[in-house]
What does this fold into?
Amino acid sequence: MPHDAHYVGAKHKRWREKVLRRAGYLCEECRRYGRLDKDGLPVAATVAHHIKPLDEYPELAYDVDNGRALCEKCHNKEHPEKGGKARRY
It folds into this structure.
């Protein structure tokens, strides 16, 4: 399956929903560091991120344990190759 086609498939949508639901629809990275949104609330997660990259580990594509719920900002930090700012450790 081509990379982009994966993200519109029903299996991916079910996997995404499971990852987000498991995290209570809150960004796991922001929660880890106690970051809040502009209203002082926990940051909502909108993206299910593959911990181990899909192109390197296709067998883990639908493994919920290979997913993290992230907000868009944190997800972009995970992908500096796609224009996000690199994470500093």
Summary: The first strand starts at residue 47 and ends at 50. The chain has a mean pLDDT of 89.
